[in-house]
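hiii so um. not sure if this is the right channel but i have a protein structure encoded as tokens and i wanna go backwards to a sequence. like what aa goes where. can anyone help
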């Protein structure tokens, strides 16, 4: 889980979390989900419904850092 990696999950936005000063966010449409690091898109995947409500959203993406 994200919390086990030392990151802070944002309860107000379940597709967003912090790793120190860095914010990670996932934005999705019906067909694609994009991972942003701060304001920069870093990875995109075909949208999957199991992404919604997943305990470890980060696990769906290739992350540039430790989270």
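sure thing!! here u go:
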């Amino acid at each position: 889980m994200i919390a086990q990696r030392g990151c802070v999950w944002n309860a107000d936005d379940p597709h967003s979390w912090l790793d120190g000063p860095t914010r990670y966010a996932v934005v999705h449409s019906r067909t694609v989900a994009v991972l942003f690091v701060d304001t920069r898109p870093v990875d995109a995947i075909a949208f999957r419904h199991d992404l919604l409500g997943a305990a470890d959203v980060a696990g769906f993406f290739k992350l540039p850092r430790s989270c």
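oh and The chain has one domain: 3-60.
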